[in-house]
Write a structure and sequence with these properties.
eight-stranded mixed β-sheet; globular; 9 helices
């Protein structure tokens, strides 16, 4: 599928956002917005958004955040601050939805950093529901160690070349993410205290073998948002939609249908 582009105003400049619409023929169906991981993009989702939207019978919106995919790259002198995910949740995503004339409360499907951004968006904006895969709500030692290992791989293996297939400026994507996650000032980052205002349904998913975070991430989401449902997936690492796509889709369908049924009864 060919991407489209829309401009938004962000931090005093026009930023081009790459995006794709899915199942546009399903007029009136709920909308699922997909938020990618820290090195992701529209293309790096591959076919999973379409597969999930088909299974749920919903429309989809997939987009690349600024600095990723075919969206406007990060400026050479632009260094992300510890609140970079807050900025994406409270500035970029609302501006994108407004530019695309999305007026309904969307469903959000976020992976890794995208899951954190989805959670943060829901602390201030109406959402129909959240499905978050391997979200980060705090910084753990295992996260830092794996991200440091990614830096070594980017500099010394073919990782840069493999990622370059998915980003118009691969250095923009990689170093924006890697440098802030490894910054000393980011070690105290946490969004745990933000979560208590989330009122929409939440499904939090994590692989048992996640190399970027422990199960404490999703279990602490449930501690702050008690109505959260958890899915801890065997045979999965940091990317459940790649490692266990069938099990994930089945769980998402059950969760979505239950929430749709409960909403219809209200």
């Amino acid at each position: 599928m060919i991407s489209s582009f829309v401009n938004i105003e962000w931090q005093g400049r026009a930023v081009r956002i790459e995006h794709q619409w899915l199942n546009t023929h399903l007029h009136g169906a709920p909308l699922m917005v997909f938020l990618h991981e820290g090195l992701g993009s529209v293309a790096m989702w591959r076919d999973y958004p379409q597969l999930l939207c088909n299974a749920l019978g919903v429309r989809g919106l997939v987009y690349s955040r600024p600095g990723y995919g075919q969206s406007t790259p990060r400026a050479a002198d632009e260094h992300w601050a510890p609140d970079f995910m807050h900025c994406q949740a409270h500035e970029v995503l609302p501006a994108l939805l407004e530019a695309l004339q999305v007026q309904e409360p969307p469903w959000l499907f976020g992976h890794s950093d995208g899951g954190s951004i989805a959670l943060l968006y829901a602390t201030r904006h109406a959402c129909a529901g959240l499905i978050v895969l391997a979200p980060h709500i705090m910084v753990e030692d295992v996260s830092v160690l794996s991200i440091a290992a990614a830096k070594e791989a980017y500099e010394n293996t073919d990782l840069r070349g493999r990622l370059a297939r998915y980003h118009v400026d691969v250095d923009s994507a990689f170093w924006g993410w890697n440098r802030i996650w490894l910054a000393h000032e980011f070690r105290s980052w946490s969004i745990e205290e933000d979560l208590s205002t989330i009122t929409c349904p939440v499904l939090a998913v994590q692989g048992i073998n996640d190399e970027y975070g422990t199960l404490a991430q999703i279990r602490n989401i449930q501690r702050h948002v008690p109505h959260t449902e958890l899915l801890e997936l065997n045979g999965s690492g940091h990317s459940p939609h790649r490692d266990q796509p069938q099990a994930l889709t089945k769980a998402c369908l059950h969760f979505f249908q239950k929430q749709t049924f409960l909403s219809a009864k209200l």
